[in-house]
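can u do me a favor
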């Protein structure tokens, strides 16, 4: 039998999952690693941690599954997007990776906008200059660490660094490359005009492939370290959200999904190029060749709930450990005791700045309406509602652009929360459905790997076969009406605080 391996390089950890051709999980393993924040608003990781996690998880699934490595015909890698990995001429890492959540590059974004032009930048890259994107990180290193930039011979994204360690090849693919702000998104290749205006040598960048295309095979060294066969193919793979789209079957018009992981995403497939001239949402090439996707991104979705758990819920963490339960389950039970609207408490989920719809690295989290009557249950519910309001912002913009989903699939860690599954339909004002697999990104890149190896005829046909809906959650019209009022108030808070956020950042 032929097997497919999906590797998901996330922000908190890497997960390797072995699938059979029917999409069934044979074996899976995860490994965590730290996130370093050396200054407020900065976020970095050591690429060596990613590689060690990949070695550990890949070797585990091969050993525990008992599958002959020669039967693993192909693998794909999903990865956190926008991270900057800089290598010297020997292929060694020059500095920690500046990852997607980093917000240090506000001045560099202003430089990019001035050098390329705001309208021209959106025409080419389909997005305004953003602190989270890779181009501004490159410009930051050029300005602040010129000695490192001078030594740089290769610039890679996180998953493409893992590809390099597995194959020795410098390659990327269109979905992840779209988030670098150096790709011509309509034409699906590097844009020389942008590179020239920013003074970035095209030779530093990897060759661009479509997501299901074969980019190489396992090297002798990687085979020795992981147990994979040197005959195993490696395909382009995808950025994390593009991979999740394939893993959820969001590969045709009218389909969309919401994912609640560290960040939050509303993602819709489009066979036609659609760009928001205001730059509030992102348009990227998707993992289906010849198609695109439109997505809004909330920087601190699951991160907001994790922050609250780690900061305020020590009692629940200890109790969960005693009874062998996930602490989030206890948090959800508390949240259910608070009424819709969390007793008039609203949370703004801007712990790491924001991307959609405000594009503001300086905004920060807020509890609005906090009073002595509020309890922990209200705080938890307000956080979950606030994240959901942020996702609703993205959905509204997509519909304004004419990208109108027929419903919403739910993935990510948030999909495990029964309470969040009930909450989202009321706030998004649309039915929400989960799928029969919890391995969205890993399954997505395994499907891409199968297409590259000829196991499946196309991405779409593979999704029709492997991805099936599980549970559906309908909206309650009375709660929909109530949440519309709260969402309207939520939307009024950022404009009122915008200047105060900037003033705070300068103190």
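np, heres the sequence
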């Amino acid at each position: 039998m032929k097997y497919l391996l999906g590797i998901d390089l996330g922000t908190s950890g890497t997960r390797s999952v072995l699938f059979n051709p029917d999409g069934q999980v044979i074996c899976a393993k995860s490994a965590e690693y730290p996130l370093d924040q050396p200054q407020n608003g900065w976020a970095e990781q050591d690429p060596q941690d990613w590689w060690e996690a990949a070695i550990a998880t890949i070797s585990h699934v091969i050993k525990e599954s008992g599958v002959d490595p020669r039967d693993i015909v192909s693998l794909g890698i999903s990865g956190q997007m926008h991270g900057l990995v800089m290598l010297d001429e020997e292929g060694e890492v020059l500095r920690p990776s500046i990852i997607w959540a980093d917000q240090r590059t506000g001045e560099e974004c202003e430089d990019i906008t001035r050098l390329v032009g705001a309208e021209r930048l959106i025409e080419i890259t389909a997005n305004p200059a953003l602190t989270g994107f890779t181009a501004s990180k490159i410009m930051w290193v050029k300005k602040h660490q010129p000695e490192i930039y001078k030594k740089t011979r290769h610039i890679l994204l996180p998953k493409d660094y893992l590809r390099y360690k597995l194959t020795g090849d410098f390659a990327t693919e269109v979905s992840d490359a779209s988030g670098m702000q150096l790709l011509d998104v309509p034409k699906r290749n590097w844009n020389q005009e942008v590179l020239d205006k920013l003074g970035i040598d095209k030779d530093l960048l990897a060759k661009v492939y479509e997501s299901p295309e074969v980019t190489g095979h396992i090297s002798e060294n990687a085979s020795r370290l992981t147990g994979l066969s040197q005959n195993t193919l490696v395909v382009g793979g995808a950025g994390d959200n593009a991979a999740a789209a394939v893993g959820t079957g969001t590969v045709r018009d009218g389909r969309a999904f919401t994912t609640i992981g560290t960040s939050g995403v509303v993602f819709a497939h489009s066979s036609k190029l659609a760009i928001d001239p205001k730059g509030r949402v992102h348009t990227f090439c998707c993992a289906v060749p010849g198609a695109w996707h439109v997505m809004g991104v909330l920087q601190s979705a699951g991160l907001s709930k994790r922050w609250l758990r780690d900061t305020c819920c020590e009692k629940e963490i200890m109790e969960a450990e005693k009874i062998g339960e996930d602490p989030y389950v206890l948090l959800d039970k508390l949240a259910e005791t608070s009424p819709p609207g969390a007793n008039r408490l609203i949370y703004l989920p801007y712990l790491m700045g924001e991307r959609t719809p405000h594009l503001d690295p300086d905004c920060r989290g807020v509890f609005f309406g906090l009073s002595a009557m509020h309890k922990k249950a209200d705080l938890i519910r307000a956080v979950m509602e606030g994240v959901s309001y942020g996702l609703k912002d993205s959905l509204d913009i997509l519909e304004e652009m004419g990208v109108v989903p027929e419903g919403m699939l739910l993935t990510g860690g948030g999909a495990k929360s029964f309470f969040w599954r009930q909450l989202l339909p009321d706030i998004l004002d649309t039915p929400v459905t989960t799928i029969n697999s919890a391995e969205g990104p890993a399954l997505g890149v395994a499907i891409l790997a199968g297409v590259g190896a000829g196991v499946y005829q196309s991405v779409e046909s593979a999704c029709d076969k492997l991805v099936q809906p599980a549970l559906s959650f309908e909206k309650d019209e009375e709660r929909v009406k109530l949440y519309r009022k709260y969402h309207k108030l939520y939307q009024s808070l950022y404009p009122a605080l915008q200047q105060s956020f900037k003033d705070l950042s300068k103190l």
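The chain has one domain: 1-35+47-80+212-507. hope that helps!!
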